[in-house]
Target: DNA polymerase sliding clamp
Amino acid sequence: MFKATIDASLLKDSIEILSVLVDEARFRISPDGISVKAVDPANVAMVSFNLESGAFEEFEATESEVGMDLTKINDIMGVAEKNETVKLELREDTQKMEIRIGGFSYTLSLLDPSTIRSEPRIPQLELPAQVILNGNELRKAIKAAEKISDHILLGIEDEIFYMEAEGDTDKVRIDMTRDQLIDMKPGDARSMFSLDYLGDIVKPASKSNEVEINIGRDFPIKLNFVIANGGGTANYLLAPRIESD
Amino acid sequence: MFKATIDASLLKDSIEILSVLVDEARFRISPDGISVKAVDPANVAMVSFNLESGAFEEFEATESEVGMDLTKINDIMGVAEKNETVKLELREDTQKMEIRIGGFSYTLSLLDPSTIRSEPRIPQLELPAQVILNGNELRKAIKAAEKISDHILLGIEDEIFYMEAEGDTDKVRIDMTRDQLIDMKPGDARSMFSLDYLGDIVKPASKSNEVEINIGRDFPIKLNFVIANGGGTANYLLAPRIESD
Amino acid sequence: MFKATIDASLLKDSIEILSVLVDEARFRISPDGISVKAVDPANVAMVSFNLESGAFEEFEATESEVGMDLTKINDIMGVAEKNETVKLELREDTQKMEIRIGGFSYTLSLLDPSTIRSEPRIPQLELPAQVILNGNELRKAIKAAEKISDHILLGIEDEIFYMEAEGDTDKVRIDMTRDQLIDMKPGDARSMFSLDYLGDIVKPASKSNEVEINIGRDFPIKLNFVIANGGGTANYLLAPRIESD
Model:
């Protein structure tokens, strides 16, 4: 069984964290909360997301797994006004999720979890370097890079965290010193990433004051941030692109 | 002759009431005011609209009938700023309408009324049930239904007014008790309507605090509301769709 | 050499003045400031623009000429927040412009000026009549005309400045008396212009409180306004269309 009440904007933000990578997801429900692990169709990026029971206004659940169409939930959430809450209730007999917002009740058919791509194994990577920065500043940098290129180089050099994108003729570079970052653990780091992916991932991340980036040399990047005032976490893993210069 | 001054936003709203169903309309002008009756090209919905002379700041008219292109008037009204007034004057000799907004004067060619579809006969229906509700709440319900279906069921059951839409797999339902409505006259009511039409009709209706809905079993719906602080009325009649389940 | 600091919104507005007519421009840099003269690809309109060194927060320059892609600068300026400043520095060795906004540094490849259409010779016209009016009011008139036609007649008659557009069936006319204008020098004036061009030109002009229009009979129009609180000027010259009635 599953029955929960949650702030509508928190649910919207949670769905966005997943929907930048996948259209459907398997939600693992337990008495402790909800978690999702998903990989994008091209196997380039992974997301691992969890929302603890404490992040909900009400939460009652036994172990179960449900498949949901993220686009549909997103559509439904469009009805919610600011500060409204959403009530969720699983109808196990019919395999439907009952979603109530104000006077509206939606009956959403669940997807058979076995038809959704299985959960990826998130690799345990030891990455040598780390920076913590404001999500909105990270997003501004990514948006600036998107103007001229489709990939971006992230690295650390002389205790400076840099993001650099090069187009056919032009270049953009953002240098951030230890002072401009919230925290930094310097190390051997220089990897290139697709802006298609990074641009999507920083959208939900931009709402967070502290985004932790773990990075190495030609290694995947790990991007973590806290949601729901500490009641949950979102973690992205993005594979590097090969530098061809 | 026809010469009138009216608040620009009131004229805009009046045009919208008509333009959700038709592109051109025959305006019947008399010393008492202006009225329009029109039916959409597919014969599914009718509108009957009137604006009394008292709703105008100035109004002088003899009996006449003019055809106007609603899209054009709408375009012209885009120039009007908030709280501006619009002066209208019919030039009978040239069959043009002179429209003045601030320093702008438009000379709009009238359409020959005989080229516009003739006025429909609005059937006098005795519908068994009635609900009165806030226009904006009605619109929210219709928008929610549009997310998952192209038709909606409206009905009354056990003194509850319900709106229900069913998609291929999902369902949305809004229940409104007598307390949540402004007024209700229960009766045998359950009819299905196209959301294409109802979605258009509730746009102008959403600005009204009180929308009166008259409904029966597999009968057309009548949707009435007052405009211009009581200086006019808008009435829609929408044919039901046949339930195919 | 060239090194300058300028308010971001002032630079954006300056680029817009040029980009409504051309995509690339030759910037003439001198110790006194920056100037551009350009003609649109169809030879219908010319712009002459200058920004004095005093309009910059810092300005150091020797004589030089650089070609720049206006679309790219515009894209880059999208990163600037309100009240931010932009630092420009010319790297003569590599023929690149270094653009710094906050923590971002862009390296923009310059265009070879010889590949950009050469500066037009701006004809010295003695136009008989002149009106000075608010840029936003001018824009409103042009937008009203665009609703019904693709050309507009500007003229003076009996000390009234008029703008008149005629569509296939409809007409819009704006009359402005001496009182409604900031200033007027009446004279023989009546010329027709393409709204495609005039609509573009009034976009940047609409931000100015005083736009000076010089006009004659079937002659080009000159449209001048001050930018940067008097630290620069923008001048457009637009060829008339032939009246075919």
